[in-house]
Amino acid sequence: MGWMKDETGLDKTPANFVPLTPLSHLARAARVFPRRTAVVDGAHRKTYAEYHARVSRLASALAARGIKPGDVVSTVLPNTYAHAEAHFGVPASGAVLNAINIRLDVATVAYIFDHAETALILADTQFLPLVEKALEAMEGPAPQIIEVPDADAGHPATGRYTTYEALLEEGDPEAPWQMPEDEWESIALNYTSGTTGRPKGVVYHHRGAYLITMGTPISWRMTLYPIYLTIVPMFHCNNWCHTWMMPAVGGTLVCCREITATAIYDAIADEGVTHMGGAPIVLNMLVNAKDEDRRAFDHRVEVFTAGAPPAAATLAAIETMGFHVTQVYGLTESYGHATECVWQDDDWSDLDAAARAGIKARQGVALPNMDHITVMDPETMAQIPMDGTATGEIMMRGNVTMKGYYKNPEATAEAFAGGYFHTGDIAVQHPDSYIQIADRAKDIIISGGENISSVEVEGVLMHHPAVSLCAVVARPDEKWGEVPCAFVELKEGAQATEPDIIAFARERLAGFKTPKAVFFTELPKTSTGKIQKFELRARARTL
Amino acid sequence: MGWMKDETGLDKTPANFVPLTPLSHLARAARVFPRRTAVVDGAHRKTYAEYHARVSRLASALAARGIKPGDVVSTVLPNTYAHAEAHFGVPASGAVLNAINIRLDVATVAYIFDHAETALILADTQFLPLVEKALEAMEGPAPQIIEVPDADAGHPATGRYTTYEALLEEGDPEAPWQMPEDEWESIALNYTSGTTGRPKGVVYHHRGAYLITMGTPISWRMTLYPIYLTIVPMFHCNNWCHTWMMPAVGGTLVCCREITATAIYDAIADEGVTHMGGAPIVLNMLVNAKDEDRRAFDHRVEVFTAGAPPAAATLAAIETMGFHVTQVYGLTESYGHATECVWQDDDWSDLDAAARAGIKARQGVALPNMDHITVMDPETMAQIPMDGTATGEIMMRGNVTMKGYYKNPEATAEAFAGGYFHTGDIAVQHPDSYIQIADRAKDIIISGGENISSVEVEGVLMHHPAVSLCAVVARPDEKWGEVPCAFVELKEGAQATEPDIIAFARERLAGFKTPKAVFFTELPKTSTGKIQKFELRARARTL
Ligand SMILES: Nc1ncnc2c1ncn2[C@@H]1O[C@H](COP(=O)(O)OP(=O)(O)OP(=O)(O)O)[C@@H](O)[C@H]1O
Ligand SMILES: Nc1ncnc2c1ncn2[C@@H]1O[C@H](COP(=O)(O)OP(=O)(O)OP(=O)(O)O)[C@@H](O)[C@H]1O
Ligand SMILES: [Mg+2]
Ligand SMILES: [Mg+2]
């Protein structure tokens, strides 16, 4: 421990210790870049001076309405300027931001309001019906509602609630902010997608939200004044914390309410977008866009993609179109991206397109702001062999890992057992330490003592000409312990029988990996489009 | 304060809290970029895997020699690979790095060894005579010496001490590092230049050393894989902490033992240097280089310059030569650069060369990693008017501010009075908040109640054809309190009298600003080339 012989007078003082928080980025940007464009949302264009003043209004108006430090303010908003302002204004009032997925069902939204004890809701007019129904379904006391209309998008104010702009009028553009006294204070509460069960409330601290904004520019090859397009929803890991990062780099945040190829190409061509993030499906949308939806541009766009590995064909196509794609991987628990498939110029630039796409399909290595991310045996916490074959669970340690699950100390302790966060994702590691995901831990099927990756079996079934979507889960079996069982959505007008599918799989897979039963049905999905295998497992047990 | 209603189970754990330290950058780089070139020093070229292993050897060898956490290890080294390794290896043993200026005099080096209680010295063969004399002059017990020869540079080992490579042989390339348990632990002890008196021992913590490495890439427009040339000495604010930053960005550190135009141009052309820092005098050297010393290159080199404002003519010339210069400003107390003259593309790109140079002469605004830097009245701590005329003292608050002065709690408390670090530099602020230095606080002359900037008077005298160098200081005066008094070095062979100089100044300055006395003499300078006005003031009192 590097304590010197005499540390007298070397303590923390207000001059040399300031709690880390992304709020400081906006405070600085208002001083350093007051006239730069901070936020663009259609006709709404605000400079950093204006953005800062509006945030101060929001924070002080919330306080005047009785929101106290530590209270939860929920948002039910698409990616609009109001949502960006809430990212700063809610914590600047000392409150905790809870951005809720606008595609959730009523029951889950009600569950979140109750669990979070929401004090106030900022709700887009389009999603007021969802919010109102959730309030009816709530058990606890109903929060206040502030309505955020978007007339340009066809959602004018209903007149039933105080509007967002009226709320801002209640505030003071020069009000001082409530800065954290301890960087461990909470800044956000984000519920997981619920792919593996009930969504869990993940708590972020100011420290982590600050540190990810300092590591991201390095991995994203970002220099001063980027133009960033918000495709990743702000309710998803707070947009991977990019909204908080923008003021640090003097960047412009371009809001995107509806994610369409036209909207994206227009933003690139008209606003000069340099950076964007999105699921592989968004890349597909760009590759397959109709000619009339495309726009020409002559700069390079840096893209982060995550959520699922991008298909090789998509990667090969999009890289010739002016985009440079980096796969990242992370979870709500890691504030978004925690690993990145860092491109090793020296080693890989001479590879052919297929080999390059093969590497880009990996989830990669820890971001500069994480301490250690690797794959371990979850029982022994031993490093797995880095041979591209052995599997284990992805484990993370670092400052951009959640504080824990809200009101769930048992789940938190379990997730942090052994000094690492257990991601629940099963992966191999290549000899260069790059991680590649094989499956979710809960989705692995163990048959006769052999592990079967559900992802591998699904990959084979997806090649069947009649299959549109599929999911493979474990079904209990007296003899083998578990056996693979497939659920399939067929393409419109296509036909296939259970024996067809099994025969198709058997030709391409080892016997123990071949599904023993196939059911044709619509697959249950989360609001982020992930298949809920826990539901299918329940069904498989009864079928 | 953003503490939620229920914070049960949301505490720090090893999974979500890791003390910030630049050591983590090298640990990660060895995993992520093992085969990239980390350090180049003539024939010495090491990858990140090798760099990491050598650092582990150094750390474990130091521990084996009895160096304990918190002990001080001093270096008397130019910018060589051993010095870079010491930046990681010394803290990785838990010890504190004290990099000493190789141009200091024996008495000051002895003073530092005593004050720091140095336990071990890494000394370059060229500077062994200085070190040996300093050991003789010391009061306390003599530290161990490890000799770092540089045969290629003409300094082969003397045979009198264990050499650096022999020391590494004693170590273990796989030894675990002593990571900080608290990010407030000390990582370095750096003595100030001694421009205003005895050098003060400035203590850095791991937290600050980490955070400056995360803010710098943003302000320096640095993307992955930069090639950085070490011109700023590693003993000067640890090379503005760039040595610690390089592994975070997968960069290559190119060492430069002798700072000459040839060496710099060669490094740019042969190694592809993309970033370098240096005093304005280095820029001059490049501009004025002889044709045969120049090399062609076709990329842009990003340059940080600090220490003094670069001359407008130098800036205009160098910007057409492939360099992009940003002025930064800072002190030993702020780990190097704390402000930067951030270029506002939108507002300034249409200005003519003179106007651009005028702006580049400003010291600018806070780096992204600092909280608040501004100019205040040091008595009232009130913000000065931002009118380009009113002066005050530059004040800083943020995480990249020293822990304090070693063994000097009084000076520390004084420096941090009112919650800001008092820099001792007097400046104006322009309407856009950009700071421009007028003078050091201690060098301001107050005559008849009027402030006189010594820098302004010197600027006028420097235009006199016979004047090579000059300094203007206050002399006590019965009637006016103080009057300006000039010390002048004449150009070789040139002649001028006291009345000549006074008459020259009187034509160009207000009467009260005109020096009342002129002395012709060699000026006392610090080892970093700054004029020691405190000595001149003492002389002025007696003359
Ligand atoms: N690049 C990627 N490649 C493959 N899978 C990814 C990638 N990025 C994220 N994922 C998957 O998404 C998960 C994180 O998703 P998120 O935190 O939104 O909720 P969830 O884990 O789906 O929901 P829940 O935790 O409630 O079951 C990861 O654990 C991983 O399984
Ligand atoms: N860009 C710059 N323009 C003008 N002056 C600068 C600039 N950068 C640094 N300086 C000067 O250098 C000083 C910091 O130098 P350093 O910490 O090396 O020691 P010092 O202040 O000269 O010595 P001491 O504190 O012992 O008197 C600043 O306080 C400022 O006066
Ligand atoms: Mg999850
Ligand atoms: Mg000083």
Automatic annotation (TrEMBL), chains A, B:
Protein name: 3-methylmercaptopropionyl-CoA ligase
One of the record's GO molecular function terms: ligase activity
AMP-binding enzyme C-terminal domain mapped to chain residues: 456-530
Entry keywords, A to Z: Fatty acid metabolism, Ligase, Lipid metabolism
Catalytic activity: 3-(methylsulfanyl)propanoate + ATP + CoA = 3-(methylsulfanyl)propanoyl-CoA + AMP + diphosphate
Entry EC number(s): 6.2.1.44
Membership in a protein family: Belongs to the ATP-dependent AMP-binding enzyme family.
Residue ranges occupied by any AMP-dependent synthetase/ligase domain in the UniProt entry: 27-406
GO biological processes: fatty acid metabolic process
